[in-house]
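#onboarding

Welcome to the new folks! Below is a worked example of what a typical request in this channel looks like: someone posts a single protein sequence, and someone else replies with the predicted structure as tokens. Don't worry about understanding the tokens yet, we'll cover that in week two.

Example request:
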Amino acid sequence: MKNKISRSRYLIGATLLGMAVSSGNTYAESDYQALQSEVQALRQELSDLRALVKQESAAQEDVKSLRQEVKSTSRAQSEAVNTDTTAHIAGYAAVGFTDRSESGSSAFSKVSFNPIFHVLYRDIALVEAELEIATAPDGSTETKLEYGAIDLFLNDYTTLVAGKFLSPLGFFRQNLHPAWINKFPSIAPGFGEGQAAPSGDVGLGVRGAYPISEGKKVKYAFYVGNGPELEVEAGEIHAIESDGYTRDIDRRKVMGGRIGFVPMPKLELGISAAGGGVGITGESDRSYRVLGTDVGYQWKQLDLRAEYIRQRVGDLSTSMIPVAYGKPGTARHLTSCCRRNGKGCCATVSMFHRSPTRGRSNGPWA
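Example response:
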């Protein structure tokens, strides 16, 4: 009986020990799994943190780069705003085709390129120039300076001009002759080289406008220059050339200008005049006079204009040029134009008059 009781105690003790060991194993395994889960979570958080740090570093680099770019752009803009000199390039090109129905001939008659350069120094001075590069009828290339001048802005109403400039006499030559404005295949008759209207001059001028009242103002342009020269061809004075010479054969300057009056909006009246000397190498100078008038009116979409201009060269009894004309003569031109939406039409009347001598076979031409 005693042995049975002892054996029962051993059995009970062994059972309790087994239960304790089993319970300890269960707790240890669950704690390990929980710890492993926490480690994995920490690893994931560490990985996410590392990625976030990398992103923040990249973002910081982007911010630094952006700040540097903004500084550079701001510096460039500041330099551009504060610069004293501004340059500008413009221009135009033209290709012309002429079909002469009377003679039955047609040809591409014009190829030209005109770059225009402007350099502005503050609001004090402007340097402007235009080159004309054109193809001649024989296929050669002609290059010339259309104009090149320095403009000094004296005030809001007055500009001083020095250099080679388009003639301020009349309206067409200084405002409408470029090919991108004048859509005709050629310059209007009377305004070409050596014709009734002066082309340009080299000298000094002043131009501007003064407001009188609302809708009314006076425009003006006065100049002094070397003046034109006479072209001799086949022993005869053929034309009055005014391309703008840097020499003065007759030693007498030409002075003149144009005054335009705007009495009401869209209406302008102008009068031009000039006088001086013109000559030929080896001869005394002759008197030279220019007189012209022009009117322009804008009616709805139409720009209506009419212009008359005349150049006159005086007589010279001591002339050695053997020509069959003796009395002074004139070159006159009258043109009327209308424009609508950039398209225009012109009617022109040109007269080139030279009076024949009376009782003489040779004599001077005016």
